[in-house]
Amino acid sequence: MTDLYAATAPEQQPAWQTLTRLAAEAGSRSIARLLDDDARNRRLWVPAPGITLDGSRQRLDAAVLDALLALAAQQNLQAAIQALFAGAEVNGTERRPALHMALRGQPGDFAGIVDAGGQAIEPAVLETRRRVLDLARSVRDGSLRGHSGKAIRDLVHIGIGGSHLGPELVSEAIGPTPGAPRCHFVANVDGDALASVLAQVDPETTLFLVVSKSFSTLETQVNARSSRSWFLERTGSAGAVEHHFMAVTANVGAAAEFGISPTRVFPMWDWVGGRYSLWSAVGLPVAVGCGPEAFSRLLDGARAMDRHFLESPLADNAPALCALLDIWNSNFLGAGCHAVLPYAHRLRRLPDYLQQLEMESNGKSVQRDGRPVGVHTMPVVWGGEGTNGQHAFHQLLHQGTRAVSADFVLVADADHELPDHHRWLLANGIAQSQALMAGQANDDPHRAVAGEHGSNTLLLDRLDPHSLGALLALHEHRVFCQGVIWNINSFDQWGVELGKRLALPIFDQLGGAPAATQDAATRRLVGRLRRPPH
To answer: Alpha helices of 27-180 — where are they, by DSSP H?
Structure first.
């Protein structure tokens, strides 16, 4: 197996030098002229499970595409993909594999893979999935009841980051089934977030799901403790906690100290990062609100994309090609930001989800061996739903001064009975990508639009659990490919920890502890905001 950590800095590869030369020549070719090459267009039209990638409106010709594929070969991308699925230690700083694909696998897919302790991972994954689906059914049919014998009507999911964004996105995108319990999501430590949810629920008919691998994530712990206090004040029964609180965590002992029964604890394994955890028990709200069948189909769609990613040659591999097009736009055409533009109201949270997945994964400045990177890594990811964004930030895309790239996400078939609405939605999505590409000439400089901004179109057959699972898995694998090309570790996030650590003494200082050791700006803010402890 190829040693991933022996990869070369990308800018030292011959293909990188070729791409640098080709980028200097790219300005002389318009995207509209490139579209005259049918053979090129066919190479950039890539079917995948539930999704078609159309990269034909990118500013590159066949020579650039060949050089990008050569760069991928020189950076051992195909071998890296095989190593990822084989359970290699791709997360070098934490000495772990990244096996989130196993969470959506079928029996036999990962039969030979063991964890750091030598235990086979597949049996635990399948057993946990069975427990999740069984619990969801018992909540939905009313057989699982609260301490007073009443059926469960609400589920409050308490997490943050990947353990929050994924299930919230999917729950909204798929939508609840009629009569299902309501699912609420609390992440922000801002008390308004929790208070607004608690005002809507009854303690006797509410389940709380606390999601934290360590069971010590600050925001999650604060929200969980406040939820428990709210529950105890209204029920007056400490013994009732175990009937209404569950956890997804690796720290069973801490969950037990909180009052959660071991039978209500679902595992979170160290080979799964939070932003890849949707497919585990973290996705319980999807199974409860949207239904066990919908959750299973979500997993099936992601698994289908996994097989496509693992088995397809790079030239026909949708996640790999997306990543290579990202490299071209970011590193060679100077696009420092990437807009995610879902033309589907139910996918309005997709930009938030991808911000976390992509920027937390690949917002890195050192290579896998600790040396500084010599090229830019992840661009800033942002965006919003169409057509709302057209009346907000699309002005910058069309007439701003910065290079940008974009993904348009379109859904071929609508689930509603307003066909003209969907036709207008699709027409606007297609037109916006066309406008980014072609622009418009005008003697009035205020009305001229330069164009020549490349974009992808990701076309979903329909917005159902299977296609949604495939879409999210495509982006997971896209991130991995980017990381391999840039020679960085996509699976750690040490930068996130710094602010958390600095917040601890400031919290005490806001309550009255001395702040003399803080810098002048922090001391001034603490002095202005200081409140006595409650």
So the answer is: 31-34, 38-43, 62-74, 77-85, 121-140, 162-174
Give per-residue pLDDT as tens, 23-45.
Answer: 998 877 899 999 999 999 999 99
Q: Within 13 Å and on the Cβ side, how many CA atoms surround 270?
A: 13
Using CA atoms, how far residue 18 sits from 65, 81, 328, 486, in Å, is 11, 24, 12, 16
Closest CA to 174 of 71, 292, 31: 292
Residue 295 confidence (pLDDT) above 80? yes
Concerning whether 500 is annotated as a catalytic residue, the answer is yes
Burial tier of 378 (Cβ tally within 10 Å: 0-12, 13-18, 19+): buried
Tell me how many degrees the CA angle 144-233-198 measures, rounded to the nearest 5: 65
Identify which of 125, 214, 103, 195 has the alpha carbon closest to the alpha carbon of residue 156: 195
Between the alpha carbon of residue 359 and those of residues 187, 330, 368, 381, the distances in Å are: 19, 14, 17, 7
Supply the DSSP string of 361-415, one letter for each residue.
HH--SB-TTSPBPSS--PPEEEE--TTGGGGTTHHHHHH-SS-EEEEEEEEEE-S
Look up 168 and say whether it is catalytic: no
What's the confidence (pLDDT) of residue 2? 45
Q: How confident is the model at residue 497 (pLDDT cuts 50, 70, 90)?
A: confident
Q: What is the pLDDT of residues 119-138, one digit of tens each?
A: 999 999 999 999 999 999 99
Report the distance separating Cα 346 and Cα 471, nearest Å.
Answer: 14
What lies within 8 Å, CB to CB, of 333 at 6+ separation is 23, 26, 59, 403, 405, 454
How far apart are the C-alpha atoms of 147 and 236, rounded to whole Å?
A: 12
Check 391, 416, 446, 534 and give the catalytic one: 391
Q: Return the DSSP state at 50.
A: T
Establish whether 360 is a catalytic residue: yes
Q: What tokens appear for 148 in the block?
A: 């007073």
Choice among 150, 376, 421, 500 that is catalytic: 500
Q: Are 211 and 184 in contact (CB under 8 A)?
A: no
Q: Is 457 helix (H, G, I), strand (E, B) or coil?
A: strand
Catalytic residue among 168, 360, 385, 476: 360
Give the 3-state secondary structure of residue 505: helix
Task: Using DSSP, state whether 47 is helix, strand or coil.
Answer: strand
Give me 411's structure tokens.
């859904």
As a whole-number percent, the residues of the chain with pLDDT over 70 amount to 98
CA nearest neighbour of 368 among 1, 4, 2: 4
Helices 62-74 and 14-26: crossing angle in degrees, nearest 10, is 160
